Write the structure tokens for this entry.
Amino acid sequence: MNNKKSGKITAKENKNQKTVKQFKSVSATKKVAPILKPTAQKNNKKTLKVRFFGGVGEIGKNMTALEFGKDIILIDAGLTFPGDNMPGVDLVIPDVTYLLENKSHIRGIVITHGHEDHIGSLPYIMKDLSAPVFGTKLTLTLIENKLKEHKLNDVSLNCIKPGSVIKLGCFSVEFINVNHSIAGAVGLAITTPVGVVFHSGDFKIDFTPVNGETMDLSRISEIGKKGVLLMMADSTNIEIGGTTMSESVVKDTLDHVFADNVKKRLIIATFASNVHRLQQILDLAVKYKRKVAFSGRSMINIAEAAAKIGELKIPEGLIIDVEKTKSFKDEQILIISTGTQGEPMSALTRMASGEFNKVVIGKNDTVVISASVIPGNEKMIYGVINNLYRLGAEVIYESLEPIHVSGHACRDELKVLHSLVKPKFFIPVHGEYRHLKKHAMLAESLGMRETNIAIAQIGDTVEFTENTMKFGEKFVAGSRFVDGVGIDGADSFVLRDRIHLSEDGLLVVVVGVEELSARLTSIEIIGKGLVLTDAIIDEAKASVVNTLSHIDLRTVRDETELNGIIRRSIKNYVFKATKKNPMILPVVMVV
């Protein structure tokens, strides 16, 4: 298949190393680098400061800074997606005001893996910060794609491998292989002047991973034996007992799905970033002699990026354009799609609503949703499932079959990590408050003193010496909203106005005033987003007329003052009549 003609992924792209060659390679001098002993400090008053910009008290937006003296390093730079209380907002990123004020002290940004909640804010913050970025090959490939979209071509991207050690100011960072739902995930062992900080990143312990590279528990054990000052660890699945199933379990289930639907067209929706899952699906497509079409921009982009660096192995001739699937029989086709969470503009959602003319769902389709439902998305995804059933498709999802496994450690795996690392102090991260609290309770049940555990919030600074931990100063932190091409703060007037409009509606009061006499000539009231009867409108008009009739409009200083008078004249009445407090927009027309 000619890649230049199709514009899609082919096996030839696996040999294209252009993207990788642009990265600077960083390697350890030894396969396993030693943890360095903390260097003695002349100024004993200096403390290690751990600052939290996100990822605590919330799922997503992960970003933590380590600061000692005039050296700062960042761990991850993620984003999260807006909630129902953020109408019109596209993305939510950390407030990095503190970092902008101290940008000359930032020595580097280390990235644990390539999920959006760990890399998504980089294109926004790197417009104002200049610091080298370190990550594994797939992580940097995904970051590079994002930076190109934002026309940021001068960011220093440095490729590391598990076992690599880098020096950033007074910090020494070792990268340790861990298992997660995306290739190239690492944990961090950071040697600081007061001790070693271990950061798990997002992880699970998988003894049969798809790529055969298990989590480096032996290295983590060695680090623990030498002494760890602080551990920060993933808390996402703390509420789930036992251990997380291996990714290899999913392949067995999917194999049965392929075998049971040999006469049907298959559509599988999964997280685009789960390259190992994609590889398993592609392998099964080859086994059952199906052509594969990718649907959804993020799916295509990530698959292309992974294929370029060899993380995704795609046989030549396997991939076809989604528009060409109609030329094949149903049993010859597999469509891999985005939309596992019912996102409104995703490929699967548009298929389910009949708005995706490239793929029309029918009775000979089996749709597999190979993902768990993220809390808060239940209504959207179950709406998609209902629509798929209405169109005649068979739908297979997590509650029916084991077609998804988490990338996060459950309680028993977290117990193993704590037992190996044996930290002096512990801060749970990557979770809402209940997750952090339960993780703290787990650490305490394993013998850690309550006074050695801290539950941090965004904007907190936790300070460490070799023997002490305490909360330090608060700093400016929180959320900033990406809205189209603009970025606004958490106290955004735009967002508040949108919320106001969505809850109470809009009332437009159009007042005509004669220029020479300043006499009121006309008044119209138009309501949007609230119920107004003719009687309410007439009473509201009368209220405005009554107020203005007692004022010599020639004495009003300007239009702003007149607008205020009009608002006050109508506000109380409208609230009494409608029990709503709409935004009131006066429009004064001089005639």
